Amino acid sequence: MDFNLSREHQLVRKMMAEFTENEVKPIAAETDKTSQYPRENIEKLFDLGVMGMCVPKEYGGAGADPLASAICIEELSKQCASTGDIVATHNGLCCDPIITHGTEAQKAKYLPMLTKGHKVGAFCLTESDAGSDAAKGQTEAKLDGDHYVLNGSKIFITNGYVADVFVVFAMTDKTKGTRGISAFIVESSFPGFSVGKHEEKMGLHGSPTAEIVFTDCIVPKENLLGQEGKGFKIAMQTLDGGRIGIAAQALGIAEGAMEEAMAYTKGRVQFGKPISKFQNTQFTFADMAMRSEAGRLLTYQAAVLKGEGKRFTKEAAMAKLFCSEHAMLTTTKALQMFGGYGYTKDYPLERMMRDAKITEIYEGTSEIQRVVISGNIGL
């Protein structure tokens, strides 16, 4: 058991730490304030090979492993969780199911688009009446000759109004429950595809979230992803991997908040000494550091298991649950150290705290993670 990062993973961390400091940090506050999609930085991440980095080299990717992707998301999220979210969704929720379940023709067409082609990907599962209970989805797909006709809508779709390629889940047979759900690759240019409401969110203001509407949307028959009726299984497998990305995002938020708070408390003098010298402050930082280390081990373990082709459902759920709750606790305590200043937009802590909350909700709430974990420990 080797707990040391390989030279390649160390180089990935160094590259992303430098990119985050030089490109992401300077615009993070403005991105949050204006709710603008950080298009220029996403284009640069395509150029660096980070977007779609786990795609095999023969399809235009870097052939990186899940651990490298997690490290990238972690580093980006230390300063801008929105950017980390965009990358996590593209890599884990769009590219990954096409890599895993796509036909050779689908991979040859779409994976180069999602890497060299600079096309952004998204994942459409959630509906207004189907959140945690994903099997309640009402979006339908009916086969009509050489194509399927999709009708329905999806909500809270990350990358929704900037994405070009969507992995979409729809009912092909409502009488079969979860066994009647199928997965499709849908392009934003397909007839009948449209973007609905742009969500205004508490946090992640730079992450474009929207409703996606299908009105007699024409999807070629060859864009069925996997077998008909196997969509629910594909969705659950994809979310297992996606949870590693959210764990990494939450871990990065917590680490970034701790770094900001440590720098502030070293310079803030009260009662004759820096507040970093008070035992209460030091104990709080000790707890933060311990939780970050534990969260990193959980996240990296899940990523390595995924890369080795082993089962990682429980480990991914544990990582996501632990890191998301760590992010919420750490940002709250870090903001407290700033006092009134932390409540203002002069410092990044209030943004980090707002961004942290969603990690306890999306890609499976904390409660759902506990359901997954308990179901995988013999109960």
Automatic annotation (TrEMBL):
<dbReference type="InterPro" id="IPR013786">
    <property type="entry name" value="AcylCoA_DH/ox_N"/>
</dbReference>
<dbReference type="InterPro" id="IPR006089">
    <property type="entry name" value="Acyl-CoA_DH_CS"/>
</dbReference>
<dbReference type="InterPro" id="IPR006091">
    <property type="entry name" value="Acyl-CoA_Oxase/DH_mid-dom"/>
</dbReference>
<keyword id="KW-0274">FAD</keyword>
<protein>
    <submittedName>
        <fullName>Acyl-CoA dehydrogenase</fullName>
    </submittedName>
</protein>
<keyword id="KW-0560">Oxidoreductase</keyword>
<dbReference type="Pfam" id="PF02770">
    <property type="entry name" value="Acyl-CoA_dh_M"/>
</dbReference>
<comment type="similarity">
    <text>Belongs to the acyl-CoA dehydrogenase family.</text>
</comment>
<feature type="domain" description="Acyl-CoA dehydrogenase/oxidase N-terminal">
    <location>
        <begin position="7"/>
        <end position="117"/>
    </location>
</feature>
<dbReference type="Pfam" id="PF00441">
    <property type="entry name" value="Acyl-CoA_dh_1"/>
</dbReference>
<feature type="domain" description="Acyl-CoA dehydrogenase/oxidase C-terminal">
    <location>
        <begin position="229"/>
        <end position="374"/>
    </location>
</feature>
<dbReference type="InterPro" id="IPR009075">
    <property type="entry name" value="AcylCo_DH/oxidase_C"/>
</dbReference>
<dbReference type="InterPro" id="IPR009100">
    <property type="entry name" value="AcylCoA_DH/oxidase_NM_dom_sf"/>
</dbReference>
<feature type="domain" description="Acyl-CoA oxidase/dehydrogenase middle">
    <location>
        <begin position="122"/>
        <end position="217"/>
    </location>
</feature>
<dbReference type="Pfam" id="PF02771">
    <property type="entry name" value="Acyl-CoA_dh_N"/>
</dbReference>
<dbReference type="InterPro" id="IPR046373">
    <property type="entry name" value="Acyl-CoA_Oxase/DH_mid-dom_sf"/>
</dbReference>
<dbReference type="InterPro" id="IPR036250">
    <property type="entry name" value="AcylCo_DH-like_C"/>
</dbReference>
<keyword id="KW-0285">Flavoprotein</keyword>
<dbReference type="InterPro" id="IPR037069">
    <property type="entry name" value="AcylCoA_DH/ox_N_sf"/>
</dbReference>
